[in-house]
Write a structure and sequence with these properties.
- By secondary structure, this protein is an all-alpha fold.
- The protein folds into two domains: about 50 residues, no CATH class; about 100 residues, no CATH class.
- About 75% of the residues lie in helices and about 0% in strands.
- It is built from nine helices and no strands.
Length: about 150
């Protein structure tokens, strides 16, 4: 019985912590997100962000990416992805979190052809593509050169 009470109490604290974390992260910026050191906490924080904050997160990410040393054609390809996000903002970042499954289908359809072009025309590795479109971490010219 004592173990059950301790486990229940622990779950209650975790739920309260998650609730506080959720409300704090709903309006989090990418700059604030980058300050979180623990990757699991980063995932939770991103998930807790409002749709508008997630959209701004990726807009900020593309501002950073476009400052790196790309060829003109590579930069144009990155801008195509950024344009896709902007043109499909309401579908990809729906206010109703239940709509996110649909948004992933739209994203996957676009991303498949975009990634194929990146690999075939620019010789980008899967790891480089991942860092561009699926990773919100800081990305530098040194990393870019390493992954080319």
């Amino acid at each position: 019985m004592k173990k059950l009470c301790i486990a229940t109490f622990g779950m209650l604290i975790l739920m309260m912590y998650s609730s506080v974390l959720f409300s704090q992260n709903e309006n989090m910026s990418r700059t604030d997100w980058l300050k979180i050191k623990n990757k699991d906490e980063r995932k939770m924080a991103y998930t807790a962000m409002s749709s508008e904050c997630q959209y701004r997160f990726w807009k900020d990410r593309f501002v950073e990416l476009k400052q790196l040393k790309w060829s003109k054609d590579e930069l144009k390809h990155i801008e195509e992805f950024e344009t896709f996000l902007s043109e499909n903002k309401n579908t990809l970042f729906p206010e109703d979190k239940k709509e996110r499954e649909k948004s992933m289908t739209v994203m996957n359809d676009f991303a498949e052809s975009w990634m194929k072009k990146a690999e075939e025309e620019f010789g980008w590795s899967k790891e480089l593509v991942y860092h561009i479109v699926a990773d919100g971490e800081l990305f530098t010219d040194e990393m870019l050169n390493e992954l080319r």
